[in-house]
Amino acid sequence: IDIVGTTLASLTISTVATPAIIHADAVTSITEAIIGNVAEFHIGAVTTLGTSTIAAAVVDVSALAAQTGELTFSAATAFTAPLTTSSLTLTAAKVISLKSSSEANIAAPAATSLTLTAQDKVTSFTAGQGQFPLLVTLNITGVAHATPLLQDNDIIVTSTVLKSLTVAGTNNDVTINTASELITLDVSGFLNALVVNNSDKLTSATL
């Protein structure tokens, strides 16, 4: 199914023959989308997406940088977007890459790998067991504040399943507490403080 146009106020696709592959390759903005159980949903040029529920196993949101409402992707097993999210549910995604987020803005119960490519200079992130029960790999690159004393993007790890943590760029404090399964720690760039407690399985640390 090919959808033409550049801006869509509302897009609803509820019943289609399976496996359906939907392309809206020229669309740059969607106000609202409800997509039923389809195989693939390609909106690779969309930069802004409003409140949407999308049940596609494969999604292309590679240009998505802004949202104007809650986003739910219930079937995608991988999700990559240059998005600073305010409310994102990724029910089935195992591998996730975003620009920036706090832990409160992501629901990703199946995630095993999470990357934040440009974590906001005043937004902290906590990787805990409750929010990310299966997360084993976390990569965060922080963005520097123009005024160093105002840098406030702390990274806190309390997960007992996380095995690998990579921190780069500019961050404030990195605190690792009771991360009992942590094996690999790689820290580069600039930070204010690093604290590691009760990570007895840690065998590789690059600082």
Topology:
Layout: E1 7-8, E2 11-13, E3 21-23, E4 29-30, E5 33-42, E6 48-49, E7 52-60, E8 66-67, E9 71-73, E10 78-80, E11 88-90, E12 95-98, E13 106-107, E14 113-119, E15 125-127, E16 137-142, E17 155-157, E18 164-169, E19 173-177, E20 184-187, E21 193-197, E22 204-206
Parallel strand pairs: 1-4, 2-5, 3-5, 4-6, 5-7, 6-8, 7-9, 9-11, 10-12, 11-13, 12-14, 14-16, 15-17, 16-18, 17-19, 18-20, 19-21, 20-22
Polypeptide structure, described:
- This protein is mainly β and about 210 residues long.
- The protein is built from no helices and 22 strands.
- The strands form four sheets. Strands 2, 3, 5, 7, 9, 11 and 13 form a seven-stranded parallel β-sheet that branches. The chain has a seven-stranded parallel β-sheet with strand order 10-12-14-16-18-20-22, with no helix packed on it. A four-stranded parallel β-sheet has the order 1-4-6-8, with no helix packed on it.
- It is elongated.
Key descriptive features of the protein:
seven-stranded parallel β-sheet; elongated; mainly beta; 207 residues; 0% helix
Shape: elongated
Order of helices and strands: EEEEEEEEEEEEEEEEEEEEEE
Low-confidence stretches: none
Could you tell me the number of beta strands? 22
Backbone CA Rg: 18 Å
Task: Estimate the helix proportion, in percent.
Answer: under 10%
The share of residues in extended strands comes to 35-45%
The main β sheet shows up as: 7 strands, parallel
